[in-house]
Specification:
single chain; 183 residues; mainly alpha; two-stranded antiparallel ribbon; 2 strands
Length: 183
């Protein structure tokens, strides 16, 4: 097993374990008054992905079912930070910076497919899940409140799946991204 492979097999399970907390950290950004609209759209789009009925990888697939969600949240954080984060306090952005910094490993792991994942996550700004579009979430306080409540509910009820430290899981994961990301 190569050092790179071992690094992914060590890191991806930690991302699965932190998925609920990561979602809550991103959701906290939506409550920030100074956050720019573009950064808020990136965050809302990434969080809304958690509720899509047709994920890139179905949640029920052993070992890797929630890794697409973990990947999407990291890319959304990176996209948000590339925008003007406005008057948002550095302390508030710290957990988001950690997620965004993980994109270096995602770029390395996905290689040529990273650009496709990033384009997909950008497109989530125009998508909807559970009947809520990003514009609805950001433009209507009651919809945003319900959405943030759903994110908190997800975070509280989320149970990290097991992730076997087997190279076949990385192969399966890459195959899903190759097949499902728009070309």
């Amino acid at each position: 097993m190569s050092d790179q492979t071992a690094k992914y097999l060590d890191t991806f399970p930690t991302w699965l374990r932190s998925l609920g907390d990561d979602a809550e950290h991103l959701a906290a950004l939506l409550g920030e008054k100074g956050l720019s609209p573009a950064a808020a759209q990136a965050v809302a789009g990434g969080l809304n992905y958690l509720f899509k009925s047709l994920d890139l990888i179905p949640d029920g697939i052993d070992d890797i079912g929630y890794l697409d969600d973990a990947f999407v949240l990291r890319v959304a954080a990176d996209l948000a930070l590339r925008e003007d984060t406005g008057e948002t306090a550095a302390e508030t952005l710290r957990p988001i910076n950690v997620l965004a910094n993980d994109c270096d490993m995602l770029r390395e792991y996905l290689d040529k497919d990273y650009g496709r994942l990033e384009a997909y996550v950008k497109g989530l700004r125009k998508g909807a899940a559970r009947g809520r579009s990003v514009d609805d979430i950001l433009g209507d306080e009651s919809v945003r409140g319900e959405f943030l409540s759903d994110v908190r509910g997800f975070a509280k009820s989320y149970e990290s799946p097991s992730f076997s430290r087997e190279e076949k899981n990385l192969i399966k994961l890459r195959a899903f991204f190759d097949a499902k990301l728009p070309k």
